[in-house]
Structures are given as structure tokens and as C-alpha cells.
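Regression test case RT-17, inverse folding.

Input:
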């Protein structure tokens, strides 16, 4: 900061900036850049509450000046962050319920669809309308998810991470690794999976019952569309898995692995063997299984979902039911987040200390075997001491 720089208060008094900071007790609250910009906090936001920016001569508040307005923003930042997390959590739980409801509605309505679709040689247009209506059924949910992700969460996560960085170690020592955009990415893939599974169910039904050339053309178009889209979503799932590993989101990584297997299964059911993705499905299932074993209270709650996906991949189930009761409970946890319960794990993941005993994403790795009990031989350089120790470690012969 330029030496002797002045700050002019609204009351008419002016002061040397450094001197005014010192008088107001603000000099040691912030880490400042050479130009005087606030880089981070040195103290907790609770201590900031004691600071009252006002003119030392007349006592008129000066917190409306840009320099001290930031002080008020810092004071309220932790609560603002928690309120945003509460909003994000409510939205995640709502969207998850909506995807599940859409899937159930399609299942419940398929009998009506079978009854009302006309498959005769003159019924192609009406049938196409019915099929299109079912194919667009989850579009409203999908649009809600992507709009909230792209318009709100994407920018908000960047701003929150920057704010947490400014709050410094007094707020949390961990670098924030926020999961909300990744979770919305997964919900988007869930929406697409529901629709592609429905498309395959329609294809299988029409193939068995139709006698129209028009329906043959329609089926061919549906088939090509499913293949192209499934390939795209496999790539999107791969990117999501990479983001999860970068952010140590173990539970979300497990879900992303399973949904990638589901898209691979769709391709398998349409073309059989012969694509590059089919060879790695078993590897993906194994990776998910390892995460479930190593993280039993987070990823481990997805065990029944993994078994369903494995049966789906092996052709023993018609659809992949990813919303087991345990999975639903995990998503609902975000909806119970309350202001005042925010905690961060060592990896920087936020979670509700009231709803969860530990981070719902990345509990500590459970060691499969205990570490080997090694003897420190340097402690027993004296031969007698070494021999005396041997029966204790090796057992009597």
C-alpha cells in the first residue's frame, strides 16, 4: 500500500489508511496485499463481529465504505455459505425424488401404453406420437436439473471456494472440494438412463407385435439414437468419474461407475459384442465393488444397487433399479441439512454434523489387513536382549 495513503470518511474526516486500520483494530485482522487488498483473514469471523468501523473523532459509522464493507461481508460469509448449502441440499433431494417418480410413472403406465398403441399398417403416425410422449416424459425433470446446475451451482461453487479461501484457516484448514455440481451431473445421467431404458423397452415390445413398415423405420431410428446417445453418456460418465477421483468423492464415484455400466449394458442389448466399451464393464463393476468394500458406511450403502447393476449387465434383469432404499436415504440426507450444522472433512467436503456422524462421501479407508508388526532390530543390537525378545514374537518352538 502506498505510504501515507489517505481515506476520506463520509463524515468529512480523513485519516492515513494504515493508521485508521490500527485505530479500529483492523490491522491484524486481515492478510493484505502490497496494494492494500484483503487477501485472507487472520482471525475467526466471530472475532470480526467485535470490530466496529467508525470515525475515531465523531463516532459515525464508516462501514459503508468499500474498504470496510468487506468486513461486514466477511462477518456474514459463513452463514451465507451454509444457507447456500441448505438450498443445494434441498434441491438435490427434490430432484432425486422427481427422477425416481418419473421412473415409477413410466413403469406404471406401460400397461396403458401397450393397450393403447396401435400397431396396424395404418396406425404409424398415432403410434409415433405415443412413443414420442413417453420418450419426452423425463425432459421437464432433466431441464430443471441442468438449468439449476448451469445457472446457479456452477458459478456458486467457484464463488464459495474463493470465499472460503479468503476466510482462511480460521474457517477451515481443508481446501474445499464441493460435490454439488458433480451430483447434478449424475442426476442428469440418471434422467437419460431412464429414458434410454424406456426406449429399449418400447423397441422390444414393438418388435414382437408390429406388422408395419413404418414401425420398422421408427424402430431403426430409435435404435441408432440410443446407440449414439449411450456412447456420449459413457464418455460423460468417464469425465464425472475423473472429477470424483480428483475431489475424493468416493460414494459419488461408486454411483458414477455403476451408471456407466448401465449405459454399456444398453449398447450390449442392442448390438451384442463387438464394441470397445463392453470389455471394461466387468472392470468397472470390480472397481465399484472395491470402493464399497473399502468405504462400508458411505459407498458400502450402495451394495444392493451394485448387485442389481451386475444382474442387469448379465441380462438377468430388464432394467437397472439404482434407487435402492439405502440409496434413497443417502440422497435424502442432503435435504435435511440445517444452518448451524456445517462441518468439513479433511478432504474439504461439506456435510451436516447433525445428519451424519462423518463425511457422507469419503470416510477413512478401512484397512483390509492390519499392518505387519515389524521388529526394530536396532533396538536389540545386544545379542542377549535380542534372544530374550524372540520368544515373544515368534512363539515357543
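Golden output:
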Amino acid at each position: 500500500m502506498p505510504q501515507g495513503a489517505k481515506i476520506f470518511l463520509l463524515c468529512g474526516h480523513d485519516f492515513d489508511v494504515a493508521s485508521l486500520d490500527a485505530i479500529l483494530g483492523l490491522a491484524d485482522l486481515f492478510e493484505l496485499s502490497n496494494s492494500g487488498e484483503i487477501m485472507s483473514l487472520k482471525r475467526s469471523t466471530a472475532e470480526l463481529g467485535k470490530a466496529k468501523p467508525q470515525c475515531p473523532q465523531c463516532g459515525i459509522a464508516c462501514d459503508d465504505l468499500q474498504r470496510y464493507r468487506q468486513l461486514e461481508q466477511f462477518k456474514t460469509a459463513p452463514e451465507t455459505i451454509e444457507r447456500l448449502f441448505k438450498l443445494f441440499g434441498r434441491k438435490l433431494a427434490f430432484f432425486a425424488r422427481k427422477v425416481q417418480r418419473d421412473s415409477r410413472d413410466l413403469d406404471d403406465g406401460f400397461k396403458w401404453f401397450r393397450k393403447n398403441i396401435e400397431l396396424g399398417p395404418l396406425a404409424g403416425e398415432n403410434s409415433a406420437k405415443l412413443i414420442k410422449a413417453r420418450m419426452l416424459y423425463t425432459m421437464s425433470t432433466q431441464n430443471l436439473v441442468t438449468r439449476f446446475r448451469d445457472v446457479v451451482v456452477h458459478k456458486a461453487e467457484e464463488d464459495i471456494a474463493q470465499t472460503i479461501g479468503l476466510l482462511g484457516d480460521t474457517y477451515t484448514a481443508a481446501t474445499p472440494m464441493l460435490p454439488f455440481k458433480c451430483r447434478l451431473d449424475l442426476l442428469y445421467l440418471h434422467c437419460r438412463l431412464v429414458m434410454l431404458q424406456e426406449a429399449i423397452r418400447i423397441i422390444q415390445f414393438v418388435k414382437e407385435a408390429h406388422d408395419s413398415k413404418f414401425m420398422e423405420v421408427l424402430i431403426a431410428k430409435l435404435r441408432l439414437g440410443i446407440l449414439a446417445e449411450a456412447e456420449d453418456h459413457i464418455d460423460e460418465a468417464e469425465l464425472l468419474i475423473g472429477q470424483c477421483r480428483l475431489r475424493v468423492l468416493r460414494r459419488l464415484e461408486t454411483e458414477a461407475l455403476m451408471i456407466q455400466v448401465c449405459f454399456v449394458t444398453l449398447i450390449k442389448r442392442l448390438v451384442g459384442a463387438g464394441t470397445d466399451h463392453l470389455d471394461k464393464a466387468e472392470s468397472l463393476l470390480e472397481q465399484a465393488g472395491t470402493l464399497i468394500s473399502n468405504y462400508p458406511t458411505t459407498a458400502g450403502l450402495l451394495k444392493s444397487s451394485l448387485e442389481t447393476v451386475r444382474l442387469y449387465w448379465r441380462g438377468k434383469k430388464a432394467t437397472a433399479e439404482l434407487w435402492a432404499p439405502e440409496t434413497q436415504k443417502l440422497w435424502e440426507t442432503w435435504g435435511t441439512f440445517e444452518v448451524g450444522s456445517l462441518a468439513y472433512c479433511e478432504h474439504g467436503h461439506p456435510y451436516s454434523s447433525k445428519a451424519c456422524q462423518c463425511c457422507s462421501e469419503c470416510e477413512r479407508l478401512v484397512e483390509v489387513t492390519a499392518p505387519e508388526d515389524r521388529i526394530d532390530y536396532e533396538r536389540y543390537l545386544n545379542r542377549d536382549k535380542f534372544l530374550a525378545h524372540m520368544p515373544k514374537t515368534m512363539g515357543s518352538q
